[in-house]
Amino acid sequence: MAAMNKILILGIESSCDETAAAVVADGREMRSNIIASQVEDHKKFGGVVPEIASRKHLEVINDVVEYALSEAGAGFADISAVAVTNGPGLVGALLVGVNMAKTLAYALQKPLVAVNHVMSHVAANYLVHTVQFPAVCLVASGGHTSLLYLLSRSETELLGTTRDDAAGEAFDKVARVLGLGYPGGPAIDKIAMQGNPDAFRFPRAFSGQDHSYEFSFSGLKSAVINVLHNLEQRGEPIPKADIAAGFQAAVVDVLVEKTRLAAKSKGAKTVLLAGGVAANRQLRLQLRETLALDGIGLNYPPPELCTDNAAMVACAGYDLYKRNEYAGLDLNAFTV
Asked: What is the pLDDT of residue 35?
């Protein structure tokens, strides 16, 4: 059984299409991190179908939680608190995890901790790095693109976010129109390595300091679709690798420019990457090289902690638990 002097947080995540549970000790030590993915269920639709996601969460969440406790060598009595993602995300999917967490907290008479999904992605870095503050974190995923200023693990300021499509959402949509399948991020990352990023010059929305830290990728997505339509109407071949490379370069250029601007203006010692897009190889390489010019370090989690998981929820929940920031049993889910 788990050592009695450890604070064990059971994390639960169901914001989109991964059903996940994890046990983390003292906000850092992963005892287990179990993920039941629904990628195969949604692949034929080219994206996540909310109703299917909710149903799949219901089917597996009990087993996932049980497996996470078993792998951690812990029982329900060893858990100090239950942490759960309650938003933003797909409301039906979120409610499955929230209701599971509320039931456990009530039955076990343990504290319930509500975790913001974006902040849990940030916390994924704390599982593998000792972060020097102040820091700037770029969270880029299928549902979110945000720049955050971090004074500590508990003091956060939102600098800017997307006004329309998130970066990961744009990757998925462009991959779909290119016929690359779902999820789109890894598919574009792979094929772009074979393409010429200068063959197609796509727009960089909100580039330059005049637009501060806001993002927009909807226009970029439309520009890619227009290029495809024009090529098809002329009966010309579709250079998928070149288009993917040009699209990826446009996304990465803006993400890197905004992040560097934020890091310099805030005097950050470290920049963190988080979210599914943080696994993109070109983004990691270009951001590391750019920040190095200013003597700023870059940290990011391993790929398995970039996508949705419950270890990051438990890690973020640990900080809230230590501050006695508990949720009530009337906890609800929110979408944005």
From this structure: 98
3-state secondary structure of 98: helix
- Written as six digits, the tokens of 176 are 């779909």
- CA pair distance 64, 214, nearest whole angstrom: 37
Average pLDDT of 108-133? 97
Q: Which residues of 12-43 are buried (b: 16+ CB within 10 A; e: fewer)?
A: bbbbbbbbbbbbbbebeebbbbbbbebeeebe
Q: How far apart are CA 330 and CA 336, in angstroms?
A: 19
Same domain, yes or no: 276 and 213: yes
Tens of pLDDT, residue by residue over 64-100, are: 999 999 999 999 999 999 999 999 999 999 999 999 9
Question: Locate tokens 């024009």: which residue?
Answer: 230
DSSP output for 40-64: HHHHTTTS--HHHHHHHHHHHHHHH
Task: Report the Cα 199 to chain-centroid distance in Å.
Answer: 30
Retrieve residue 112's tokens. Answer: 């319930």
Please tell me the distance from the alpha carbon of residue 94 to that of residue 332, in angstroms, as a whole number.
Answer: 9
* Inter-residue contact 109 to 80 (CB < 8 Å): no
Q: Return the number of other C-beta atoms located less than 10 Å from residue 50's C-beta.
A: 14
Q: Say whether both 109 and 207 belong to one domain.
A: no
Q: Are residues 68 and 183 in the same domain?
A: no
Relative to beta strand 81-87, strand 112-116 is parallel
- Considering the domain architecture, whether residues 144 and 276 belong to the same structural domain is answered as yes
Q: Is residue 328 part of a domain?
A: no
The pTM (predicted TM-score) of the whole model is 0.93
Query: Which residues have C-beta within 8 Å of that of residue 26, sequence separation ≥ 6?
Result: 6, 7, 318
- Poorest-pLDDT segment among 2-16, 45-59, 128-142, 190-204: 2-16
**How many Å apart are CA 89 and CA 335, to the nearest integer?**
5
Residues 6+ apart with CB under 8 A from 87: 15, 94, 116, 117, 333, 334, 335, 336
